Amino acid sequence: MKFAFFALSAIYGGVTLTAAFVAPPASPAASVRTNSALQVAAQDKVTFDQEQFIAESKEMRLKHLEEQAMYALKISCENYGNAVFPNAMIAGDVVITHLLHRLGYIKDGKCKIMVVDTFHLFPETMEFLKEIEEFYDFKAEVFCAEGIPVGDKAAFDKRYGADLWKENIEEYDRVCKVEPFQRGLKTLKTDCMINGRTRWQGFERAWIDLFENAPIGGGLAKCNPLAYWTLEDTFDYIAKYKVPHHPLHAKGYPSIGDAKDTIPIPEDGSVRFVDFKFEGDKTQWLDYASERKGRFVGLANADGSTKTECGIHVSGAEKTWDRDLWESDKSKVKKIESVDAAIQVKDAGKPSVVVVYAPWCQYSQKMEDEFESFAEKYGGEIDIYSFRGDEEREFVQANLNTKSFPTVNVVKPDGTVVKYESEVRTVDAFKKFVDETLA
Length: 439
Known about the structure:
InterPro entries: PAPS_reduct_dom, Thioredoxin_domain. The protein has helices at residues 50-79, 91-103, 123-136, 153-160, 164-167, 169-187, 231-241, 283-286, 339-346, 362-378, 393-399, 427-438; strands at residues 4-12, 15-23, 38-42, 45-48, 83-86, 111-116, 141-143, 192-194, 211-213, 221-223, 272-274, 277-279, 334-336, 352-357, 383-388, 407-411, 417-419.
């Protein structure tokens, strides 16, 4: 077989560059496409339009990524019975929504779209959900904290507390994100979860592939159709197809989570995505691992490390405490199981001691053994109870002096509840307080 050798020369920066190419022999069926970035002026000369070459290369790359993502979505929606896409409406997620629409999977119901409302989202987020529901003609399945009606922030605050995220961020993640997320997947009976995680988002995700086994949901398949995309690819796609996207991108936010811990990058909002174009220095958004720089700001994990994940994609995140407190059958601390039972203890006409606690609270955990010893030593003289109060915030504030955990109270025979104010939580200190209160 013979090959043709030819050379192209170009002048760049005053230096003549020559490149040799080897081409296979032409066949009758062969067709030659000349890249428009290379304009052949003569047999031995070529002019090179660098910007045009970059633009064409990016378009080639994006075309490949689109096809790859759609192939992954086709596998998810055609080969699994109940594909579900948890949609956070960030840049990658609106791309996936558009791809699912192009494939017809939203319209034919082969993929359901799920949204988790943490009750701490930006107001613009749920408004944007309405916009894309109308645009793509679908209705999202919305899930929120257990036992709370969708959209009822007051009911959430009443049960879990408006400051739960300040008291314990892991418990907040469990209540507001992980548990409703998992419940949503189970309710929708999904066997394949589609999500927008990418390798470009940081080292925690640097090795993800198009498909993997999810760490939650009992062997659930997880599809990452944008696994190999950069954030720039994502915005290129949004611009190419004029995809509806979150309004906060135009106000300086590269990624959008909870309002309480999400900020613009940079903080002055000088980088924006407006009318499908970037304003300002876009590299501050598009550098590796920069997409989520503005997320989880000011938050730390229980071990003091910087928080970078909300917990949804982390194994074991659904349970941020190992067990309930004073749960053993041998415990001398009696359990109060309901609000009604707590009222009965309060109105019983005899003295008692009640600790109001949260099982995830480190201070409740630290006093467990000492309070158990107190019950073992004095439980024969006075009834000693525990009542989990983190899910009955309004009740324990109004009836059991509780604004933080743990709170120890002595209930007098007349129903008066007296709070133990000291931070000294020892058997002797508890006993002294009981004796002085009931004297």
